[in-house]
């Protein structure tokens, strides 16, 4: 087993899940390309261009801005703190992903949706906001629990770094 982990870099379960995800993705691509090959190709290339040229610089700038603004506040206390940035990154990413997937319904741009399904699209914006609020609230609770654990007497060792740059929450 140790030889496999040294060779592969992770355990066999990771490799199995990776192979299964590639198989599922390949199956989906074969099915989609059989029905609408040009639309799928255009969507794929457009998504790659949109992500790499527009979204990546935007969310990198937002992340650097959050780090620079909140870092100055973190330098005030000399007490050890919990890495906080991922408690902002994770709910922001999940909320943005939901918005990206469901934006036609959230922004009421899906014209045929109510006529085709008989359902209203008026509930999606409020539900997306509610899910976003729950994501940030859950992240805040997790951060508070971790912070309390660190600041409890005997809770954490005093050599912990003050600000986390890319560390896991």
Any overview of this molecule?
4% of the residues are buried. It is built from six helices and no strands. Helix 2 packs across helix 3 (37-74) and helix 4 (86-106) runs antiparallel to helix 6. 73% of the residues lie in helices and 0% in strands.
Question: What fraction of residues sit in β-strands?
Answer: under 5%
Task: Please give the number of β-strands.
Answer: 0
Number of helices, where a helix is a run of at least 4 consecutive DSSP H or I residues: 6
Coarse shape: extended
Class by alpha and beta content: mainly alpha
Average of the residue pLDDT scores: 82
Q: What is the CA-CA span between the terminal residues?
A: 29 Å
Largest sheet: none
Low-confidence stretches: 157-169
What is the element string, with H for helices and E for strands? Answer: HHHHHH
Rg is: 22 Å
Helix content: over 70%
Short description:
The chain is mainly alpha-helical. The chain is built from 6 helices and no strands.
Secondary structure elements and pairings:
Elements: H1 2-8, H2 12-35, H3 37-74, H4 86-106, H5 112-117, H6 124-151
Helix pairs in contact: 2-3, 4-6
Notable features of this structure?
169 residues, extended, mainly alpha
């Amino acid at each position: 087993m140790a030889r496999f982990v040294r060779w592969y870099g992770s355990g066999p379960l990771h490799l199995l899940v990776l192979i299964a995800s590639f198989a599922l993705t390949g199956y989906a691509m074969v099915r989609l390309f059989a029905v609408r090959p040009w639309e799928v190709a255009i969507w794929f290339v457009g998504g790659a261009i949109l992500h790499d040229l527009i979204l990546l610089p935007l969310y990198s700038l937002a992340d650097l801005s959050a780090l620079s603004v909140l870092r100055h506040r973190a330098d005030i206390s000399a007490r050890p703190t919990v890495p906080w940035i991922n408690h902002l990154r994770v709910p922001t990413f999940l909320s943005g992903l939901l918005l990206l997937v469901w934006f036609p319904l959230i922004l009421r741009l899906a014209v045929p949706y109510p006529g085709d399904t008989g359902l209203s699209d008026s509930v999606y914006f409020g539900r997306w906001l509610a899910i976003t609020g729950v994501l940030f609230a859950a992240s805040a609770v997790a951060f508070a629990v971790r912070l309390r654990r660190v600041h409890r007497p005997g809770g954490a060792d005093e050599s912990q770094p003050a600000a986390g740059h890319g560390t896991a929450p």
